[in-house]
Amino acid sequence: MGLAESVSDYFGVQEHGSSVRTELLAGLTTFLTMSYIIVVNPAIMTDNPNTDLVEGIVIEGFSTGEIQSMLAIVTILAAATATFVMAVYANRPFAQAPGLGLNAFFAITVVGVLGVPWQTALAAVVVEGIIFIILTAIGAREYVINLFPEPVKFAVGTGIGLFLALIGLQAMGIVVADPGTMIGLGSIASDPVAIVSVIGLFLTLALYARGVPGSIIIGIVATAALGWAVTALGPVASDAGLVASSSSATYDITPLAGAFVSGFGNVEAFSFALIVFTFFFVDFFDTAGTLVGVGQAGDFLDENGDLPDIDKPLMADAVGTTVGGMLGTSTVTTFIESATGVEEGGRTGLTAFTVAALFVGSLAIVPLVTSVPQYASHIALVVIGVVMIQNVVDIDWDDLTNVIPAGLTILVMPFTYSIAYGIAAGIASYPIVKLAAGEREDVRIGHWVLAAAFVVYFIVRTGGVLAAQL
Which is nearest to 285 in space by CA: 461, 21, 50, 86? Predict the structure, then answer.
């Protein structure tokens, strides 16, 4: 038996209607789409020396660039570890890495606004991960996720699709901030990044619609090549943002690894518990929403909208968070960019294994990995975001008690830039509208408990409770 056959048998590739080639291609697609995290996570986690407020990690005796280089290595190691566990234990095509939004909360809110030492913030991440491992082992996380109302489950995929598209369009310069309307159309006829992005997007959409294998990868590479060409040949200035800057690698991460241990003595118990609770809450529902949404895109959900054996990918997420915190980065979570690999045909853990292997390989070529500009890689998010909108047909739009929670889930996700907030809006509204419509038989005690938990979370998160305790 050859290596390909052994790998295929281990992951059950043929049983899942896939092939080794398809799985490898799907893994490459996912990796290319999410590899930006190698650069973006360190940039967010490291303190900006140009501001008076300390927002992120500061290590005495090390420059900002050196700290970012350390964090790039830590990001790769955390992502590779978590995704490897996802591959060999859960056998799912989902990739993991330090989550966007969670890293900003870590650096800007906890360390910056609240003034918590970054070592203590890392300690909170580690504790959160250990709690997740315990809750997953006893089945509590799976039980809570299965409590999600059906219209919310079926709406998550579409909400994530809009969220993906918004992230992608922003990176491409097509959607920009607007002081009057909050968001608006970018200068797509004069901004070089937007022009190249639009060309690359329509090329990718055309290839995808034609059914060309690897169309997303072709689109990413072609767009990056076009940006490089117009810059190298002179029509566009070198500082226009079409070519990504490379970075050097610092492999000594000892100032970060294990730093969480010293963090346990820097804050009193109640305040520390509130920080852990906030990390826990956002990560729990971000991961749950991503697993359900990407599972819907891959047709993994059962007739009740549940992801079978969801406890296994949840355990991979819990292990990744714990390891990431110990190494020196914020909460690790399942990436919505996994949808790109699923849409390319990835159906087993071989896709995730490929992503993990590519992360490990990127340790040797960090400058090359970061050479794919963000606007090019994020074309994949727009393409997949558009495709995921079709999941909206699974919702029963004839029943207003389903329309309201589903609609809120879909709308709140992109508008608040948070999967967790979208799920919160849907779950909190579900028992209320069901009770108002006289359909209390559809409401379980668990629905009310979840709704109440979201109320508590929003009080802690937006009511100034954390700030008052620190």
Answer: 461
Cα–Cα distance list, 138 to 132, 133, 134 (Å):
10, 9, 6
Q: Helix, strand, or coil here: 48? A: coil
| Distance (Å, whole) CA 247 – CA 249 | 7
Tokens standing for residue 450: 């979840």
Question: In Å, how far are 78, 208, 269, 453 from 274, measured between CA atoms?
Answer: 25, 46, 9, 14
Q: Name the residue with tokens 């039980």.
A: 143
- Please, what is the Cα angle at 121 between 118 and 126, to 5 degrees? 130
Pairing state between β 332-334 and 96-98:
antiparallel
pLDDT value, residue 435: 94
Residues 144, 291: contact at Cβ < 8 Å? Answer: no
pLDDT attached to residue 417: 80
Give the pLDDT mean for 294-316: 85
Smallest Cα–Cα separation from 454: which of 431, 433, 425?
A: 425
pLDDT above 80: residue 18: yes
- As given in the structure block, the two tokens for residue 354 are 């490929």
